[in-house]
Amino acid sequence: MEHLNKQDENMNIVIVGHVDHGKSTIIGRLLADTNSLPEGKLEQVKETCRRNSKPFEYAFLLDALKDEQSQGITIDSARVFFNTKKRNYIIIDAPGHIEFLKNMVTGASRAESALLVIDANEGIKENSKRHGYMLSMLGIKQVSVLVNKMDLVDYDEDTYKNIVKEYTKFLEKIDIKPESFIPVSGMMGDAVASLSDNMPWYEGQTVLESLDNFKTKKEPENRPFRMPVQDVYKFTKDGDNRRIVAGNIESGKVSVGDEVVFYPSGKSSKVKSIEGFNREKTDTIGVGYATGFTLEEQIYIKRGELASIYNQKKPKVSSRIKTNLFWLGRKPMKKGKEYKFKVGTSKVIAKIEEITRVIDASDLSNAKKESIDRHDVAECILTLDKAIAFDEVTDIDKTSRFVIVDDYEIAGGGIIQKALEDDLSEVRDKVMLRNYKWEKSIITKEERAEKYNQKSSLILITGKEDVGKKPLAKTLEKKLFNDGKIVYFLGIGNLLYGVDADIKATSNNNKEEHLRRLAEVANIILDSGSILIVTAVGLTKENLDTIKTSIDTENIQTVWVGDEVTTNIPVDIQITDTNSLEAESNRIKGLLQKEGIIFKPW
Questions:
Q1: Which of 82, 135, 304, 426 fits as disulfide partner to 140, beta carbons 3.0 to 4.6 Å?
Q2: Which domains does the chain have, with CATH numbers?
Q3: Count of helices and strands (H, E) across the chain
Q4: What is the pTM of this model?
């Protein structure tokens, strides 16, 4: 096989089309006609077919030979490598069979351009239109349409022209202007690598010429920097104390000394060094690279955050989004049901708030519906269980694309059109500004945890009035204190008549603002490495969301006191017997041990 690295230019192409329209044959022919096969591979496959008394087909040249010969359909997105004199190609074979459309989504999302195959004999099918619509949604505008199997229609020019006319009309409606239509025969090789005497009426490009005329999408490094955080790696061997923030750069570039801001948390620090495995040392790295960097000041960040640079355009942050999505799940997407939503490296729970309209991708008709059926495309508003960072599709398409998982399978995907305000937008803005302005101690969270032998944690004890919340909280505080823990009890009244005195005295007794201020005080105490116990009446899930937005810890435990939980707050432990404070505080202590907040002896 010719060496694929002889050119610097590379291009990812996805090939799509209805089942049995000849995609695999086209790919096999491209491999053969560009001499991109391993030496002897073509002869080997031809000999195998001869021994099995089976007619040779170019489709058999794909790596997925066994599956395709046994099942007759492509069942996975196969990556195939070949090259021309101009550039290297990675062609992604996206399945056309209706059962495997979801794999096409995964394949197309990595591509810069597309070949869309239509069978001249069968004509345009519903999937031909669906695939075109999905390419449009994914922002893939460079498309060549291959009218394949011209040999089966005796190379009839009128058949070709009718398909061109009909499909062009459809593509115009979805804002795709194809680079070319090419009449081909993958089986016979017509117009794949060279023009054919079988079609003297066609004098346009061959498939290979069309590919080479596609423009490589140069990701401009002057766009805003975006890197979804994949993980934070900590090293300890041989005195190596680096903490490397790792991910794939989707846009822009980052340099040593840049001030990076992570969203949705709003935390920031300066880049100390850029790290890479088996790579030369560099002070700058840009779009398309998987990389990592260390920070001058250690901050607590986690997978799912989106890294940006301070003086550049910020990503959007919200828990309500306007989307354009396509649905491929076997069951309809319905209001009220929870789905897993993934954008970048963040994963949250999503629900449909409103279905604005539903579009049939095969004929572009639309209707008002209460659910989204298989193969529908919908404009809808989604509500997420917590805020995420992203970009709108008009700004940066890569960080606007998402997938939806239902029953452990990718069931849909799409693009974020707009960030919408949610109930916590104002609180979140204040928290991000606070985090950016935060004066960081030189003592890290990990150092405090090691010194105190505990992790900072907030314990919220809630329930109806006069059910014994405060006595329980104080008993728990004394127990942990006697165990040598750094612990503090804070009754809500301590804030109401102190920090909150200005709003307590007004007629507009703003509970949300009380909770925001409580969370800000709690955040300071937790930053000191302490365990904080707070009591409050009848907290709800919405109240908890406000607190979680403001507090820099994952360690929040909720305790409900009373026979019946009367709000929608998620409860970690319920206390029904406050006559035995010692025993019940032991139960809460056991929860803290289970969660790894305090040490549990063997």
A1: 135
A2: 10-213 (3.40.50.300), 227-309 (2.40.30.10), 316-425 (2.40.30.10), 450-594 (3.40.50.300)
A3: 15, 28
A4: 0.75
